[in-house]
Amino acid sequence: MHTVKFLIWFCLFSIVVGAQEENPAKQFWNTLQTHCGKAYEGTLIFPKEDKAFGGKKLVMHLRACNETEIKIPFYVGDDKSRTWILTYQNDRISLKHDHRHEDGKEDKINFYGGISTNIGKANVQFFPADSKTQSMIPDAATNIWWITINEDVFTYNLRRLGTERVFKIAMDLQNPITIPEAPWGWKD
Predict the structure, then answer these.
(1) Residues 73/82, Cβ–Cβ less than 8 Å
(2) Radius of gyration for the alpha carbons in the chain, expressed in angstroms and rounded
(3) What's the pTM?
């Protein structure tokens, strides 16, 4: 009788503890959620000589968040054309890139990116190029994007396997900045 009671107790305890534990993708997601509504400035780590990003003020704003989607406009100097869109579904996170023109219209190369192939880690998620990206941008077929986050820093990274293409920016999460105006295609 005691064995049966113990087994029932153990099963119930395991269910409760298991329900409380979050997988690494959800932990990563929840950490991002804590920054919703905030903006941060960052720096280009490499390549330093990048013509589009080098020497320009880099700002990200976790502007729109809900349970399954986080939209992060990313500003490069006066260029407000980029938004990273992260989506959480079925214990996976996808990363898409939304590019707009100054008038708000979509760029012809838009919504490319990838989806994590596993639950990743609580502080890093990887996004290999998906088939839509491979069709849209053949050279990006071997792209792998990844995002890291800890208490101090958010990094956005890109590596194009088989090439020298590598890109990394780091955003300072310790010092929120004034919220920037809306990116191109958004309304305040």
Answers:
(1) yes
(2) 20
(3) 0.88
